[in-house]
Design a protein that fits this description.
Length: 194
């Protein structure tokens, strides 16, 4: 019969092994600028893989944020704004005031949707803009669209709001993925699978 000390050691080792094997694997994650993104996420009941990731620079000098785009398997770049599950997860490298998000988004939205469409989306855009918070380096926003449910904005994994409509999702994701995006090379890197 093992001693109390031997039994205690066996129990401790068993607990440690169980704890280590239950931790999420980082071997299947992608890291850019010290920001780590999972290789896949779940939207509703659907597993959605990482499609592309990129670093956004302002004026080619300042590193602003890194982002990861999640799209269903076999999604073509031309289908990214369609009524499919998607997430854009952004990890910030600089501080930004909450009200500045809406101010920065407005001209890019206006480039990608018609005036009539923008007017139809106005109340929903204003609702989203109202919940943006001040962020500091290391903070994350995620925009997650689930068909039939809407677009959820979360801050550091805390859900802030869900905005209904596939039309809203297509318009808002067009900031990064539209025909006249925030930055064309950034869009290309997000949509380049691999």
């Amino acid at each position: 019969m093992p001693s109390v000390n031997a039994t205690f050691r066996i129990v401790c080792c068993t607990v440690l092994v169980a704890a280590l094997t239950s931790l999420p694997s980082r071997a299947h994650a992608l890291t850019i600028e010290n920001a780590t993104f999972a290789k896949s996420i779940t939207i509703g009941e659907k597993r959605v893989p990482l499609h592309g990731a990129a670093l956004l620079r302002w004026q080619k000098l300042v590193k602003v944020y890194v982002a990861a785009l999640y799209l269903p398997e076999q999604t073509k770049p031309s289908e990214a704004l369609s009524d499919i599950p998607k997430r854009l997860e952004i990890s910030y490298l600089v501080s930004i005031k909450g009200p500045d998000f809406g101010t920065a988004a407005e001209p890019i939205l206006a480039r990608n949707v018609s005036g009539a469409e923008l007017a139809g989306l106005r109340s929903r855009i204003d609702r989203l803009n109202a919940v943006y918070r001040n962020i500091k380096p290391g903070d994350r926003y995620a925009l997650t669209y689930q068909p039939g449910k809407g677009t959820e904005l979360s801050w550091n994994k805390e859900p802030l709001i869900t905005i209904e409509g596939a039309d809203f999702a297509a318009a808002y994701f067009s900031i990064w993925l539209g025909s006249k995006p925030l930055n064309k090379s950034f869009k290309k890197a997000l949509l380049k699978k691999g």
